[in-house]
Amino acid sequence: MVPVQYYFVLSALLFFIGVFGFITRRNLIAMLISVELILNAVDINFAVFNRLLFPSSMEGMFMTLFSIGVSAAESAVAIAIIINVYRNFKSDSVDSIKNMKW
Amino acid sequence: MANSIMFCILAVVILGSAVMCVTTTRIMRAATFMLFVLFGVAGLYFLLDYTYLGAAQISVYAGGVTMIYVFAIQLVSKRTLQGLTERMKGSRILWGGLLALIGCVTVILVLWKNQYVMAGMMTPDVEVPMKDIGQALVGAGKYEYVLAFEFISLFLLACIIGGLMVARKEDNK
């Protein structure tokens, strides 16, 4: 089997690629995609901790399962907000939103 | 040995697609590369013998969430589809790269230097039986998750209704 450290290095790299994308991009959807990358890195960590270090239990697996569900709900709400922002500001850049109320 | 080769292939796919995903200026391509990252992560779950988790990853993430993104991209922006609006600023890339690099090195050093009790290395490559997963998911005893399961279904319903309420067109009063 692959040693557990390799999985951790992979997920850490994925996490910080997501952080880099979240800092550099200014498009709302691109930032949301970066957040999805970060969430996936965390999910990998949960599953790997459970499988390789505590193989007799299933907590990490269920945590990943629920995390997948929560991120689906989160992206649905975020997409709705982005569509609403685009309808009101005619732009999908974060710089275009000057105030929360109009 | 076969596990190591599969892990290398999946790592290359995941990291390459993730880098392309955050550096490309076209949103549609970013969504496509995110799809490849999600498939790679599902492959990692299959490699860990969590087949149910891999199936859930493919059906919910790659099937559902990516569809939502593509739908939103088509709905929102003609200009970003053609790659016209987004431009990268040099200083922001510099600071973002620096921050990501520092954090990445710190986290990798901590995780690499740690000593782990490798309990799972001795277990054979058998997948977690579906019966155990199902019983733990809807059981109400110790280490069973019916409350979280019900809560997350309610949460998903609330989020969908909230999303519809937010995204709906205001009717002319």
Structural notes for this entry:
The complex is a heterodimer of chains A (102) and B (173). Helix content of chain A is 76%, strand content 0%. Chain A contains 3 helices and no strands. Chain A has helices at residues 4-24, 28-53, 59-89. In chain A, helix 1 runs antiparallel to helix 2 (28-53). The longest helix of chain A is centred in the last third of the chain and has 31 residues, at 59-89. The termini of chain A are far apart. The model of chain A has no long low-confidence stretch (mean pLDDT 87). Chain B has 173 residues and is mainly alpha-helical. Chain B folds into 2 domains: 1-112, NADH-ubiquinone/plastoquinone oxidoreductase chain 6, subunit NuoJ (Four Helix Bundle (Hemerythrin (Met), subunit A), Up-down Bundle); 129-173, no CATH class. The interface between A and B is large, with 71 and 83 residues.
Q: What is the chain-wise order of helices and strands of chain A?
A: HHH
CATH 2nd-level architecture of chain A: Orthogonal Bundle
Discrete helix count of chain B: 7
Instruction: Please mark out the parts of chain A with pLDDT under 50 across 5 or more consecutive residues, or reply none.
Output: none
Classify the helix fraction of chain A into a percent range. Answer: over 70%
Helix content of chain B: over 70%
Tally of DSSP helical segments of chain A: 3
Features:
heterodimer; A: 102 residues; mainly alpha; Helix Hairpins; 3 helices; elongated; B: 173 residues; Four Helix Bundle (Hemerythrin (Met), subunit A)
Quick structural summary:
With 102 residues, chain A is mostly helical. Chain A has three helices and no strands. Chain B folds into two domains: 1-112, Up-down Bundle (Four Helix Bundle (Hemerythrin (Met), subunit A)), CATH 1.20.120.1200; 129-173, no CATH class.
SSE layout and pairing:
The complex is a heterodimer of chains A (102) and B (173).
Chain A: H1 4-24, H2 28-53, H3 59-89
Helix pairs in contact in A: 1-2, 2-3
Chain B: H1 2-23, H2 27-47, H3 51-76, H4 78-81, H5 90-113, H6 130-138, H7 146-167
